[in-house]
Each structure stands twice: as structure tokens, then as C-alpha cells.
């Protein structure tokens, strides 16, 4: 099952997602949906519902895993399966590191959410380089092996970026402006 936006927020509350993690997830969803809509317009066979739900729930287990050594992506995949959300479980489970990536295969929803997460610090859309520096500073402190894994993952992310944007009519650099325009549009009263 692919959960609705309302069900996603109910799950966020049920699993005690902290507000700043919710804000991050909402911004990741905005980035992911912009990319998915553009790819659908370009002819890719994607489910916007899966992208939306996967992006909103990608950090469903993050609060639960704070202060533990548990992998929040694996725990999030487990939570999805426990809640009969098999259709988005792999999206959540692979949002940190893609397990199965093929450059020449059709775009998959999990690649979009994986990439979108790498473009968002807190609730701000940033470049891949800014996000890499943030992750190195917050998670790779004095841990050379972890820093190397983070850098290698960002090399994969750059490949995913090329794959996604080869079919889009906007650039990676346009995402911050596009997300900001959506926020402004959402804030306007309906006429």
C-alpha cells in the first residue's frame, strides 16, 4: 500500500518524529516531487504517490534511533513493512545508500528520494557539496573510514544527479529557487 499524505503524518506522529525532522522530510518531499513531476512529463514511468510517501517517511525511524547505533534507514524499512507499506519500504530503506543502482536502467522512485535527501540540510535546499560538508562535519568527525564512505556515497549521488537531470528541463542549481517558489505559492490565499 502507498499511504496518503495524511497517513504519512499520522505515522510521523505515532513514531514520535521530532518537528525539525518533519520539516526536513517535508522539504525533501518538495524536492523529490519537483523532480518526479519533471521526469513524468519527460516520459518516465514513475509513481508520484510513491515518491511523495517515500520522501515524507524516509526518516520515520530517525527519532527512534537517536542515541543508538541503529541504522535508521533499515529500521524505517522495517517500520514500513510492519505497517503494510511494502511499496515504499525499499525507498525508505535505501534513502541513505542505494543498494541496487544501474546507470542505464529506468529511473526508480528510490533514486529520486535518495537524491532529494542529499540536497536538503535541515529544511533548506543546498548543493551536493554543501550537504557533503555538513555530513562530514556532523557524522564523520575524526573518523577517516566513515568520511571515506560518505565521500564514496556522494560520488554515487553525483552519478544519480546526472541520470535524473539528463531528462529534466531544469538544472540541479534551479532546485532551491523552485522549492522557494512553491513555498510562496502555498502561502497565498486561494481566490
Short structural summary:
The protein is mainly alpha-helical and 191 residues long. It has helices at 5-14, 19-41, 48-57, 62-65, 72-82, 86-93, 109-118, 128-139, 144-165, 175-186, and strands spanning 120-121, 124-125.
Main attributes of the structure:
single chain; 191 residues; mainly alpha; Hypothetical protein af1432; two-stranded antiparallel ribbon; 10 helices; 2% strand; disordered C terminus
Topology:
Layout: H1 5-14, H2 19-41, H3 48-57, H4 62-65, H5 72-82, H6 86-93, H7 109-118, E1 120-121, E2 124-125, H8 128-139, H9 144-165, H10 175-186
Helix pairs in contact: 1-3, 2-3, 2-7, 2-10, 3-6, 3-7, 5-6, 6-7, 7-9, 8-9
What does this structure look like?
Strands 1-2 form a two-stranded antiparallel ribbon. Residues 187-191 have low confidence and may be disordered. It has a single domain (5-186), classed as Hypothetical protein af1432 (Orthogonal Bundle). It is mainly α and 191 residues long. Strand 1 (120-121) and strand 2 form a beta hairpin. Helix content is 64%, strand content 2%. It is globular and about 40 Å long.
Our measurement of the CA-to-CA distance between the termini, rounded to an integer number of angstroms, reads 35 Å
Computed structural class: mainly alpha
Specify the helix fraction band: 55-70%
- CATH C-level class is Mainly Alpha
Report the C-alpha radius of gyration, rounded: 16 Å
What's the order of the H and E elements?
A: HHHHHHHEEHHH
Whole-number tally of structural domains? 1
Mean pLDDT, as a whole number?
92
Proportion of residues in β-strands: under 5%
Amino acid at each position: 500500500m502507498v499511504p496518503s499524505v495524511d497517513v504519512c503524518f499520522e505515522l510521523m506522529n505515532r513514531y514520535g518524529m521530532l518537528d525539525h525532522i518533519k520539516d526536513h522530510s517535508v522539504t525533501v518531499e518538495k524536492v523529490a516531487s519537483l523532480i518526479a513531476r519533471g521526469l513524468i512529463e519527460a516520459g518516465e514511468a514513475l509513481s508520484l504517490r510513491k515518491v511523495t510517501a517515500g520522501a515524507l517517511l524516509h526518516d520515520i525511524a530517525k527519532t527512534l534511533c537517536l542515541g543508538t547505533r541503529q541504522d535508521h534507514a533499515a529500521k524505517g524499512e522495517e517500520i514500513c513493512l510492519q505497517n503494510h507499506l511494502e511499496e515504499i519500504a525499499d525507498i525508505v530503506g535505501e534513502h541513505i545508500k542505494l543498494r541496487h543502482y544501474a546507470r542505464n536502467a529506468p529511473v526508480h522512485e528510490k533514486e529520486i528520494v535518495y537524491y532529494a535527501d542529499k540536497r536538503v540540510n535541515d529544511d533548506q535546499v543546498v548543493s551536493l557539496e554543501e550537504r557533503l560538508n555538513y555530513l562530514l562535519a556532523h557524522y564523520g568527525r575524526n573518523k577517516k573510514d566513515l568520511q571515506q564512505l560518505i565521500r564514496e556515497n556522494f560520488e554515487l549521488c553525483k552519478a544519480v544527479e546526472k541520470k535524473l537531470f539528463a531528462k529534466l528541463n531544469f538544472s540541479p542549481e534551479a532546485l532551491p529557487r523552485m522549492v522557494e517558489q512553491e513555498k510562496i505559492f502555498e502561502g497565498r490565499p486561494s481566490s
